[in-house]
DNA sequence: AAGCTATGTGTAAACGGTTACACAAAAGTA
DNA sequence: TACTTTTGTGTAACCGTTTACACATAGCTT
């Protein structure tokens, strides 16, 4: 790899001059510029970001921490972040935290050691303090904290909406599957749904499940044993909903006639299920992109009106819920 | 952030000594070590990777280029890579190429500018030359090239297997959905399946589709119009298979009685489909992990027996193919 | 006791950029 | 013309590490 010194020699100027024409900073004679650019071209010179980053004390790298890229909800978000940052020449250093505090800390540390300009993180509640004394901008994604800017979606409305959908469409024995309570957004949607259900005159049962397929399957199996009269299920996410759907089909229960089911997230394969799953949509890609936008504003020290951006969710009506007209 | 100089001052030694005790290189008196470590502890010193990387001309960063993290096949692979590298303290810089040459080149360049120690890439055929004159190790993932080490799966056996499955289970009017021919592994599995089918005395039709849901849907709709007598479909991947499944169900065709369907990849939601999709499994996570392992060996200049690692695929028998006993 | 080797430590030069500063020449102003 | 400002360029310090080298001292050998 050619260095700035090679270019300087080739062009017969000093390194300072090369640096100036490369960055368009300071003065440089038109003719000099040409000579330098020719040398750059000839040697295929690309400035070493590491050296630059060392002097400037900041790189063109952004750290991204997500719980688990293997969970279909997150790739969309990651892509949103990447696509947005990419336009501005920023690159992503990426890490899966598995919601584990140690891993988060480890990543934060190494990100810092690499002089990242900023970080975007879906971090667990308690780990927020890890970000507290950083002197680089951080934006939370899909999670919130008072002190940090954040982009997330309207879990409360989402939970409420899910409940409303089943209620409006006539379910009266509803099981609400609660995800892990430590995961704030999941807990919030649960609470909102629960509240909404309680105000209606229906039977409500709560069951616990992890966010994974396996967790969903065990949960759902139990569900039908304990509450065979169930005619409505609100799942904590689409994966668990898919598990429920499978169990429902296996038991020969008609859906949506005998039982209604609603998921959460609207991850891609949700439309491919049979019957296609009704769900509450979170705009994952958009969330990622907006978090990136916010981060860049922070980096550029632009003044920010809003630091907490709550994106709207929506009900995606498919075929595991009844048409509103045809209430039972 | 504390620097090595701060630590040196705090400990009352020179920076060289601090560096030596941090790295366990050269001599250092036991007492000195203690003093230094105490200072490190006190100041919470973490060496700046950027400076280190500048001097050493290599960082602890590995570049990863994948076509699209949003395609469920890749997160598994990415996770395999990450989990493996993470143990050795390497971090990932990540980029989506969308199979586009420019994007690949752009990422390769910036990765290089950041002094990555190595790269793992799922790159398009022609772009291989981009890696040619690099002086850092590269390993291809899910793709192959003569000159570069690679980890991939046995597409030929996979394609053949898919064909064999339908054949052995009695399909005689088979449609083979071919993915984009530019994507080598997809093309290979197609060719292998085609060959196998041709040797049998069955009707074979070929249709084209992209690898996306949308592409699959359009393709499949046409499929049934053009070849209503079809009793077996081999899809180029699971997503397209899912689209096919949906169309089959919509048309009220019985599966697997009237038609058999087999996918490719065994991405996670494949088991959640109804009926669960029979497919050819590629060990995506394992592929990622092995590519990482290979890369690390290269980085450490370890001698390598095999540079091209072909991982086995397997038939995952679910319910869109008939039991072998109950051939029609 | 003299001459080794092994141990312990510091100084300073890299690594590849950016930029403050100095200085010179050109251009503008009175 | 003499002075000021603008333009153009180079020198060298700096960013935070690592390491070659020099040097000093301790511990062994005879």
Automatic annotation (TrEMBL), chains A, B:
Keywords: DNA-binding, Repressor, Transcription, Transcription regulation
Molecular function (Gene Ontology), one example: DNA-binding transcription factor activity
A Pfam family reported for this protein in Swiss-Prot or TrEMBL: LacI
Matches recorded under Gene3D superfamilies: 3.40.50.2300, lambda repressor-like DNA-binding domains (1.10.260.40)
Residues annotated as domain HTH lacI-type: 2-56
Protein name: LacI family DNA-binding transcriptional regulator
Domain of life: Bacteria
Cited SUPFAM superfamilies: lambda repressor-like DNA-binding domains, Periplasmic binding protein-like I
